[in-house]
């Protein structure tokens, strides 16, 4: 039995899931979950890899795997075939659930929530260890996904914290948006709303404007929200910037029903948050790690400091080491595949540099491994400068380098490809005025390639590949245009 599934399905509220396909009551969701759990048990599935678009079947499958004690390994549509094959091999998956048969594995068709899916089986020696409920694979900087083993009680603790934080806002309907294979949407966008008694609008990602891992058409999301009246959703920073820019250009405002828009995955920046809020987007930044079962900190109405990552949620404790690296405790995952199980009571280094102020708000300066030392011996976090550059409407993305250089340099991708160089120089000059002299951008170049997976300049989830970008702009320090 699963205590998390029991808690999710035992909450009050007639409707659990809804969308253009119809709706599922909590009772119907429970029946569908138990039916599929029985199938998985009869088939003796041990490790289930799934490739499903957002929809009721994804939720049923996830809960059924937990109910049956099966390890769930979600695959994302934006992952390449090579990445998916790596995940199957690394996790020891003996079953794949997707719309069509997988490779030459033996297969059978089963119904889930009104749709048909194929259950493909193979003989494999699955060795994931006891107590593992889910393996969430993240795209590392090299593009090879890293699998983090998660126990049920860790995900339950995080979801319970988020649900508790949502109570004062009386959220009745959440809009599922990010791919459910992303742990953030899985825990904060499915488990937490269900625990809070809310219903979830869930529909295919493309119908909400998502295009792969990096494309987003905010006008589609706006239309859906104006129709269904959803009150909360989760966005990535680049999506917030795109939505804010679209609203500004169209002279429109965000849907009036929205009460809370959580933004995570990377630094957002106070200026971006303020621009969004001015157009009716109630955006609040949070912070989390897959190794910590998703969300650790969150800004909330009445407890908000734009530019910070918010305060730790009830399940989480945070501290700062002498070298500036943040550590977390509480709801710590078992660790990566192939590594010894982590001590659940130990402090986990996050790899992020930051501070915690007197009121408990966490401020993230950037990744420890990205820190560079200038030619004058000053330690600089590139994310600090990048977030300031990206807060300007003319600059869509900026990547900053500076190891051993007299001054940092920047690779710029503009919001408008036709933007003249003078406008970029003006934008950099504006940011330089707000920076100390040792952190001011001294040279820049336009990006030769977009910062996306197709160009090789970013991972599947949009995180920049700094080594690849540096290699493509190797002569920047010597030939970049001087900033004003």
**Mind summarizing the main beta sheet?**
5 strands, mixed
Secondary-structure class: alpha/beta
Overall 3D shape: globular
Low-confidence stretches: 477-484
- Count the DSSP helices: 13
Helix content: 25-40%
Span from first to last CA?
64 Å
Count of individual beta strands: 29
Mean of residue pLDDT?
90
Radius of gyration, CA atoms, in whole angstroms? 22 Å
* Strand content range: 25-35%
Order of strands, widest sheet: 4-3-5-7-6
Structure description:
Residues 477-484 have low confidence and may be disordered. The protein has 484 residues and is α/β, with parallel strands linked by helices. It is globular, with a radius of gyration of 22 Å. α2 crosses α3, α5 (152-166) crosses α6 and α8 (237-250) packs parallel to α9 (270-278). It has 13 helices and 29 strands. The strands form 8 sheets. The chain has a 5-stranded mixed sheet, sandwiched between helices. It has a 5-stranded mixed sheet with strand order 14-15-16-17-18, with helices on both faces. Strands 2-1-11-10 form a 4-stranded mixed sheet.
SSE inventory with pairings:
Elements: H1 3-9, E1 15-19, E2 22-25, H2 26-42, E3 47-51, H3 56-68, E4 71-75, H4 81-91, E5 95-98, E6 106-112, E7 115-121, E8 134-139, E9 145-150, H5 152-166, E10 173-175, H6 183-195, E11 199-201, E12 210-211, E13 215-216, H7 218-228, E14 232-235, H8 237-250, E15 260-263, H9 270-278, E16 283-289, E17 294-298, E18 311-312, E19 317-320, E20 325-329, E21 335-336, E22 348-356, E23 362-367, E24 372-373, E25 379-380, H10 382-390, E26 395-401, E27 409-414, H11 421-432, E28 443-446, H12 466-472, H13 476-479, E29 481-482
Parallel strand pairs: 1-11, 3-4, 3-5, 10-11, 14-15, 15-16, 27-28
Antiparallel strand pairs: 1-2, 5-7, 6-7, 8-9, 9-21, 12-13, 16-17, 17-18, 19-20, 20-22, 22-23, 24-25, 26-27, 28-29
Helix pairs in contact: 2-3, 5-6, 8-9
